[in-house]
Amino acid sequence: MALVKANPPGIPAVGDGKPTPDGPASGLPPLIETGPSVEDLLAALDAEESTTRRSAARALATHPEAAMALCDRVEIERSPSVRVVLFTTLIRLQSPEIAARLAGLLRSEDVALRNGAIEALQEMPAAVAPSLRALLADPDSDVRLFAVNILGALCHESAPEWLVEVIASEPHVNVCAAAVDALAEVGRPEAVPALQALRARFPDEPFMTFAIDTAVRRIEGR
Amino acid sequence: MTEAPPREASAARPARRVLVIDDGITMRLFYRSVLEAAGFHVEEATNGVEGYEKALADPFDLLIVDINMPKMDGFTMLRAIRRDRAVLGVPAVTISTEADPADARRALEAGANYYLVKPVAPDLLTEVARLMTGGPA
């Protein structure tokens, strides 16, 4: 049986140009696996053809050493379909370093890139947890809001507790509203006093009153 | 002289239909409660992809569009909708947390007709919905 790896579609074959053993028909068992090296795959991330870049991004999912290069690429990649594969690969390779790089994209003016980063970070609870405290304390209220969006969808045991901390101290109404919305989904009964206290901080915001009522009803109904 | 039959008043007119596209469940419920109280018929979508599909499948009188959504953001969804002749003219209001004028400009360039900043007061939402749909619900 052949052990020769097929090149990912779009990735040029590499090697010395000689025919590759193709299994029993060659009469010799293959001695090594062939396929593009990490260097070739990294180079292919800059290829003109999006299919080549997409294949390279997919093939790099087994190469943790390529993580930072993938993070570099996702910041400049223009093709939405390649971007999706880059994010998927980064999710597979997830680490605190990758999460920290993706967290930097929360400041991007490119909404699709920013949302891609948010969705990717939601898929790596353990990796993103060390970055979340800093994000929730960021001077930019938009970054804090995106951090709350991540927290709300994160399957992390501390998420409800962190959301309660947000509504207890966060000054911006929209960040608090996002936290209340998240608590409606993941909050526990312990969150109800903090929600009631929040009501007093924004007495003139009809949406906040509505959101708190909705969250309390949902939490108490669970 | 016999009394003229009552005219087909606005009561006979079907309610204006609004599609609310927002990933936040509380936000969708809030918009629904405000708009239904004003006489609009409201349907919901939870992300840009679902919003795009619903908007094309059965055109609405108004789209209320969040910007930051999973799967497809509001700008991308609006640009896609504005490329489709069938729904080209459907008015759209974007509602975002970002009050930066540059964000408002981006929304208008993407195809929005109006830009509101969260949190939106119920009276303002109703007024804008009426304005965009050409009168009372």
Automatic annotation (TrEMBL), chain A:
Entry's Gene Ontology molecular function annotations: lyase activity
Lyase is among the record's keywords: yes
Top-level taxon in the UniProt lineage: Bacteria
Region feature (Disordered): 1-30
Keywords: Lyase
Protein name: PBS lyase
Species the sequence originates in: Pararhodospirillum oryzae
TrEMBL record, chain B:
Gene3D superfamilies hit by this protein: 3.40.50.2300
UniProt keyword Nucleotide-binding, yes or no: no
Lineage of origin: Bacteria, Pseudomonadati, Pseudomonadota, Alphaproteobacteria, Rhodospirillales
Magnesium found in the keyword field: no
Residue stretches making up the Response regulatory domain: 17-133
Gene Ontology biological process terms from the UniProt entry: phosphorelay signal transduction system
Keywords: Phosphoprotein
4-aspartylphosphate: residues bearing it: D66
Signal peptide: none
Source superkingdom: Bacteria
One family name in Pfam for this protein: Response_reg
PROSITE patterns assigned to the protein according to its UniProt record, in alphabetical order: RESPONSE_REGULATORY
Protein name: Response regulator
Cross-referenced SMART domains: REC
